[in-house]
Amino acid sequence: MTQLLVKLEKWQRNLIVLWIGCFIAGIGFSEIAPFLSLYVGELGNFSKGQLTIYSGLTYAITFLVVAVVSPIWGRLADRRGRKLMLLRSSLGMAIIIAACGFVHNIWSLLILRFLQGLCAGYIPNASALIATESPKEKSGTVLGILTTSYVSGNLIGPVLGGLLAQIFSIRITFVLTGILLLIVFFLSLFFVHENFKPTTTTNQKVNHVSTLSQLKNPKTIIVLLFSTMIIQMGNNSITPIISLYVKELMHGIGPITIAAGIIAALPGLSTLIAAPRLGQLGDRKGNGKVLIFGFLFAIIMYFPQGLVTSVWMLGILRFMIGISDGALFPTIQTILSKESPPTLTGTVFSWNQSFQALGSMFGSLFGGIIPNFFDYNGVFVFTAISLLINFIIVLLFLPELRFHAKKKS
Q: Which region among 168-177, 213-222, 228-237, 399-408 has the lowest average model confidence (pLDDT)?
């Protein structure tokens, strides 16, 4: 393995190592999700209402911190290098997630989940490093390939985490996850290369407004960040209701939890298949065209999800949503990298992570509230309408993606 890496070009070696790193990071971030609420229940004698509130806080606090601190880490990445941020994130996450296995009260867990948010940033910094270190003509392809890494990790993580918790214990699973992330730290330390050139002192002292003024097309950046939030909001809106919706479609009979798990995993599977191919298509035909396709395809696939009458129909439509994700997320990252000067790529990608974290928060919130007024199908209709509005905004404010997709992207 080591000899193979040495023979490759530096950007190819980075891609392989960071693919492995993001894959393991994706597993680490997602494998504790299925049993986190169960772990909260082990930390005290809570009522049902208290357990729900504390579980919600445990999930939400990490996303909230990520949204707030990501721009700070992004600016530091532009000053000190993205590799340093990879090391900070992977080592910090390894220590903190492992420590979660040793807590004995909810407040200690909440503090660690807060610190986990502070240590986030491995995947966006890996994307920024790949975007700046790879040939520009291959950026869409390599970012599409990199997308498959953390999507695959997120796909495998919940299943692996459930198995580890069943075989060992929840506490041991936290420790094993920390060990996995420690491996990511050493891979990044020894095998990732960055040809980093620090920015000048003048450029270091910037705020968000002055940073936007340094961008060639700040309007494009703003619209794409907003799009990231809406797309992620749609992805997360089904999370609070997926098991309940599947139960309703199966009339409460059969292996409901298994079916819900499969339904939840299907978008990740199709994203894994579609993202590299759509990234290559964007490099050939224009990223704007792929972005427009992704929006239209998602809108068409979301509307009927609230009207299905069987779990099989829902599964097919959820699989299709993964294809739209494979078009949207890596294409947005590709355009962001091309519209950002190398000295600000880390900052822009950190903004993107902040908006993605906000999308995760809003999606979970709306997914829990809307069914109280419009039943489960209201979630899918709301998501489709949100994406439709987003699509119209893209067409209105970024006409260059529509008319000159190849030239501008």
A: 399-408
Cα 337 to Cα 268: distance, rounded to the nearest angstrom: 24
Task: Give the confidence band of 124 by pLDDT, cuts at 50, 70, 90.
Answer: confident
What are the tokens at 316? 């097919």
Which residue do the tokens 């990298």 mark? 337
Domain end, chosen from 138, 166, 198, is at 198
Q: Helices in 43-169 by DSSP H: which ranges?
A: 48-80, 82-100, 106-118, 122-133, 139-167
How far is Cα 72 from Cα 310, in angstroms, rounded to an integer?
Answer: 46
> The pTM is what?
0.66
Q: Are 14 and 133 in contact, with CB atoms under 8 Å apart?
A: yes
Q: Which of 120, 99, 96 is nearest to 22 (CA)?
A: 120
Over residues 365-376, the pLDDT tens digits come to: 777 677 777 777
CB atoms inside a 10 Å sphere around CB 229 = 23
Residue 44 sits in the same domain as residue 178 = yes
Please check whether residues 176 and 252 belong to one and the same domain. no
Report, in angstroms and rounded to the nearest whole number, the Rg of the chain calculated over CA atoms: 21
pLDDT for 128: 82
Phi/psi of residue 284, nearest 5 degrees: -85, -45
Quick one: tokens of 27?
């597993």
Rounded-to-integer distance, Cα 63 and Cα 104, Å: 23
Identify the domain containing residue 28 by its residue range: 7-198
Of 299, 302, 314, the closest CA to residue 245 belongs to 314
Report yes or no: 301 and 325 within 8 Å, Cβ to Cβ: no
Instruction: Say how far residue 86 (Cα) sits from the centre of its chain.
Output: 16
Q: Are 370 and 379 in contact (CB under 8 A)?
A: yes
Which tens digits make up the pLDDT trace of 24-77?
Answer: 888 887 777 666 767 888 888 887 667 767 776 787 788 888 888 877 887 788
